Protein: CAF17 transferase
Amino acid sequence: FRLHESPEEEPHILLECDGSVLEAIQKHLKLYKIRRKVNITPCLDLSLWAVVPGEQAGDISASLPKSAAAQALVLTPDPRTEVMGWRLITKKGTNPSEIIPGSQIGNIQDYHRHRYKQGIPEGVKDLPPGVALPLESNLAYMNGISFTKGCYIGQELTARTHHMGVIRKRLLPVHFSSPLPEDSIPEGAEIFTESGKPAGKFRVGGGELGLALLRLAHINEPLCLNIGGDKVKLTADTPKWWPKTAGK
Structure:
C-alpha cells in the first residue's frame, strides 16, 4: 500500500505479509536493497482487518463517516478480487465496527472459510515457497503477476507459460462430504479419482471446505482423499469470479 500521496513526499510503502515469515521477508528485502537508502521496519503497532462483503454489499466508501479516514491508515478494495471485499489497517486497539457502519466482528475461521469458498490462497501454508507456481496458484487472476514490467525471478518461464503454454493444474476450492478432522491431514496428501488415478494434492482446509491443487482434466469427476485408511469424498468447483476467458 502506498502511503505517500505525492511524488514530492518521501516514499512510504506498507507491505502486508504472512506474519509467520516476517523475519525471513525482512532479510529477503534487505538482500535486494543494495546501496539504496531504504529503511525496512516491521509495524507491530498496526492491526489488519478483512472487511468481507455481505449479501447486500456495495461500495462501502459511500457510507463511511468522515471520521473513518482519520481512524483508518488503509481502507481500500482487496486488490485480488472483488469477492474478497476490503482491506482495513488501523492502529492496534481501534474498533473496526466504529469505522465501518453496520459491520460485525467475526473470527479468523469465518475469514478462512470465505477464502476457501472463493478459492483464494493466502500465506505460506496455502502457497508453500519453492513448491507453489504462480500460474497454477491463479495469481494472474488476482493482480499478482505483471506481464509488462521488467525482469524478475522466474519471469521468463512464467510469461512463456502464460502466452504459449497450457496450464494443466490449478488451485481450486473443494468441498468435502464430511468435515475434516483437525490437523490430521498431511501436507500434500494425494487426491484420487474413483478409478484410482492421481488427481492432485490437498493443500489446506477447515471443516468441509478447502483448497487443492488439481489436474483440470479430473475436476468434474468424483474425487476422494485418503485419511487414515478412510476415503473422504470431495468435489471441486471453478470460482465464479475467474475471468470468462479462464480456459487455459
